[in-house]
Amino acid sequence: MLRATLKSLLARKVRLLLSGLAVVLGVMFVSGAFVLTDTLGRSFDAVFADAYEGIDVNVAGKPKVALGEMQGEQVAATVPAATVQRVREVAGVAEATGVVNTDGAQLIGGNGKVVTSFGPPQLGANWRGESDLVKLREGREPRADDEIVVNAALAQAGKVKVGDRVGVLTPLTPKQTFTLVGIFGYSGDRDSIGGVNEIAFTTPVAQRLLLGERDVFTNVTVRAAPGVGDATLRDDVARTLGDGFEVKTGAQLSADASASLKEGLSFFNKILLGFAAVALLVGTFLILNTFSIIVAQRTRELALMRAIGASGRQIIGSVVLEAVAIGLIASVLGLGAGIGIGALLAYVFGNLAGGLTLAGIGVPASAVIGSFAVGLLITVVAALLPALRAARIPPIAAMQDVANPDRPLTRVTVTGGVITGIGAVLLFLGLSGNAGDNALPVILGGVLFAFIGVALLTPLISRPVVSLLGAVFAWSVPGKLGRLNSGRNPRRTAITAAALMVGIALVTGVTVILDSAKGSIGALAQDTIKAELVISGASTGPRPASFDPAVLTKVAALPGVQMADGEYGDMGMVDGKVTWLAASSDVTALQRIFGAKTTAGDISRLGPDQMLFSSDSARSRNISVGSTVTVQASRGEPRTYTVSGIYESSELTSPVQLPPQAVKDFAIPKPNQGFIQLAPGTRVADVQPQVEALLADSPEVSVADRDAFIEQQTGSLDSLLTMIQILLALAIVIAVLGIVNTLALSVLERTRELGLLRAIGLRRAQTMRMITVEAVVISVFGALLGIVVGVGLGAAVVRALKDDGITDLILPWGQMGLFLLLAAVIGVVAAVLPAVRAARINVLGAIAHD
Amino acid sequence: MTATVGRHAQAAARANDVWKVYGTGEAQVAALRGVSAEFERGRFTAIMGPSGSGKSTLMHCLAGLDSVSRGTVQIGDTTVTGLGDSGLTKLRRDKVGFIFQQFNLLPTLTAQENILLPMSIAGRKPDPAWYDTVIDTVGLRDRLGHRPSQLSGGQQQRVACARALVARPEVIFADEPTGNLDSRSGAEVLNFLRNSVREHGQTIVMVTHDPTAAAYADRVVFLADGQIVSELIEPTADTVLDTMKKLDTPVEVAG
Ligand SMILES: Nc1ncnc2c1ncn2[C@@H]1O[C@H](COP(=O)(O)OP(=O)(O)O)[C@@H](O)[C@H]1O
Ligand SMILES: [Mg+2]
């Protein structure tokens, strides 16, 4: 029995490999994701272990506002110079150094542009002298207030050399100019550690520019005296300092730093796994179809086996065994390809991150286990239905000519209806917010059920739709035959089309959602932002772009400018709850530029101890005019404000609005955006160049008219869309494989019939046309299904996001037309090989076949 | 048929008042109408009749490949009627062998693998001496490694015969085993079948519409319009042909 199975497997290896390819691709994503995260994770570990090597114990302030992973960058409280002294006096401390070290110090390069970084921080620090780790390569240390040194990586990226006058931006201050007096590197002749750019100032300058206070530090690094354990020393230091400080060993520090980067990686990992899931879903359809066709073709063979004594279970076993073999092969290939892809991505990532030294490529056990589990599971699950069907073949079928009568579609349709229904209910629960914390898995489950349900309903729809689609080609005999062939086996056509449906539906759905979001935001901004010019910039790191507030005063003084408002923001706490804090340099901007309406109190003015609430957040916190609340910004001490007004919530308003005096405690006390309102009759083109000139020292931002600004704001959605489309294209490629596979198997199955057609005069070209029509009909049908399902899913999501400001449902008609066209092309491409094969069929041989 | 009652213990297969009705309502066809027959151990019985008379149907019912509408079927001491799938599977493994008109062999397996397939499916080892005897009688020793596509039609049928014999079933059912063969290959196969009955005591029930083939049998049962209408012991081609001619007229009416 085993031998019979393996032999039949070998006889079909090409077909099976084709369908196995889908599993290979899915497994590749899975193992690639694991290899990538493992390799990068270990690289991060190594980098931080290295960077924190000289630190035995570290003392930092507790952040004033504790943020979750996705809420943004935490700002730690500063450590006073006196604390450094207290640490120094703890028994067992050999050395305690006050360190100033913050992210967001940007060098303006030789070409006047800010040196950017994708990911690794841009550190600003106080120069603490040379050490085991840090060595000056050129020049000398900074001694005067206007002197800095930078690391070699930054000097190269910015094309600056010792002696240059260079500009520096920090989160707290506008552009300052310094003389570059030295360039330093790290032990092992490295230009950077983990791609980090670093600028070092004298300690007082670093304190003023980076922390905004005198005599404070970001943290204190401690060297233990010989024989003193790190953990013991940490506990001693913590006890001496009391509450309010975070004391950690160097090892802890490095593990924490690495862990937070890995958090980001795991997000990336999840995205890759998501695409793996899509590829595997499509692959499941493919394998299911291949096995169904193979079982149908082997009906007589299987019936013969039954007649000579094989039990139903043995038949199931033999089909499942084939699946296991394919699953194993596909998993091995997928694992190999995944290791390659993971290594490649890690390399690309490492380079993007400015030369992250990669630890050796690792293949974690999770990659191997994941690959085999997924590969085997998918193949076997997909083969199970065909296997059950094979077991039901009666032995008498060995003696009958027509082996597979058309089974009624009632059962599959009812099942499909039920599963679609379950999907719809799950989607409804997830989208309506009834599922609470489980919303995402519930929605994904709903999508999955919807896909499977629709796939099961497809055979029923396929007959009328396919015959309608095929009518386009029915003017020629080959066209007519092709059309009839595509309607011949509704299940097979349906599953093949369903595989394509999944990819197209996802792309369409995402496009509908993003287009609607873009359209809604654009329309809202168009209607409500009453500013002719907007200053803004794309952020190049974790923190948003900002500019010198002095520019606003100068802009306001320009002729023709009626109002110039700067918008500030910070993640802070209002009565202990993390909240986005907003402030405008001009309090009236809320009404005059953003069109906010008064709900209660007075929103047109704001004293230094007063603040405003949006109607939504006021309601949810039970706040009314006259309430007092405590606000803690990223820095500084908590402050109490009286609520003096409440404005109507809209997409453009923030939950709370603080007076301009509050911004000095924001993480970035500089405006992120500027809105400029012109006096009636003033031409935008007259003012814009003048504003541009004023922004010369704020290279992070630029000024644009309102349309360009809206375009900028929604532009990120476009790149997101493109990225998703590229990744989902893979699902479509797999579906194309499915069409090729189905057609190839059908051609094989109809060898005799094709021979007969050729014998009675069908030309080669006509044969090929017949196959092509069949392919085009199937793929256009799949695309049509995908578009319908995708629009349905997209519309459901858009509907659910109505309260979040996506008010308009925008259907991407052009895009959808393109998909149909693409599907036709896909059909033609997929038909090439099977058509050639069909045309090559030897007439005599085909008729004598069997 | 009452004459056969005394030989009960000897019967390898038996049909008792078997009816087989296909379809429902208007489209109803009664392929078998109350067939009772016994097929003795160690004998070669042919079932003859014109096309459409119900020969294949009778064989399928006897072999448990198809269910009967009424009546019972027995193979050896097993009542086939009413058996479930696992019972039928066991029956096919232990008691029945098949030779079909065509598509007898798995194209991917060699002749030897095909011959041994029923044993390996059942997880049994063939008796080596018996295996050698079978291979030698079919005369295929030098072809054992060949695939079906590399064998002639006659050779393929002989492989099928060998496969049916190796397991030493209670009874072998053959449905037009020579239907696709030229007369010489057909004669080879029929000789082989007769020898396995004569020399090894095998029981064979063969369906055929060819009088020459039927003449190889020890006994011929004639079927017409779903009923047993006649019987010949020790037939010759001529006596079979005569009987057939007599039967022709009523069948035409029924058809
Ligand atoms: N599966 C079936 N469905 C309906 N009618 C059938 C079926 N099989 C056989 N018949 C009918 O039963 C009768 C006997 O058929 P069969 O046993 O194949 O005859 P034979 O083998 O003698 O030529 C014929 O009239 C045939 O049409
Ligand atoms: Mg017949």
From TrEMBL, chain A:
Molecular function terms, GO-annotated: transmembrane transporter activity
Signal peptide: none
Gene Ontology CC: one annotated term: plasma membrane
Keyword tags: Cell membrane, Membrane, Transmembrane, Transmembrane helix
Top-rank lineage group of the source organism: Bacteria
Membrane topology: Multi-pass membrane protein
Cross-referenced InterPro entries: ABC3_permease_C, MacB_PCD, Macrolide_Exporter_MacB
Protein name in UniProt: ABC transporter permease
Subcellular location: Cell membrane
Domain MacB-like periplasmic core as annotated: residue spans: 18-238, 493-693
TM stretches of this protein: 271-295, 316-349, 361-388, 409-431, 443-473, 494-514, 726-748, 769-796, 816-836
Span of domain ABC3 transporter permease C-terminal: 275-395, 726-842
UniProt record similarity statement: Belongs to the ABC-4 integral membrane protein family.
The organism of origin for this protein: Micromonospora wenchangensis
From TrEMBL, chain B:
CDD domains reported for this sequence: ABC_MJ0796_LolCDE_FtsE (cd03255)
TM annotation in the entry: none
Extent of the signal sequence: none
GO CC annotation terms, alphabetical: membrane protein complex
Pfam families: ABC_tran
This protein's UniProt keywords: ATP-binding, Nucleotide-binding, Transport
PROSITE patterns registered for this protein in UniProt: ABC_TRANSPORTER_2
Family stated for the protein in its record: Belongs to the ABC transporter superfamily.
Name of this chain's protein: Peptide ABC transporter ATP-binding protein
GO terms of molecular function: ATP binding; ATP hydrolysis activity; transmembrane transporter activity
InterPro entries, per database record: AAA+_ATPase, ABC_transporter-like_ATP-bd, MacB-like_ATP-bd, P-loop_NTPase
ABC transporter domain mapped to chain residues: 13-250
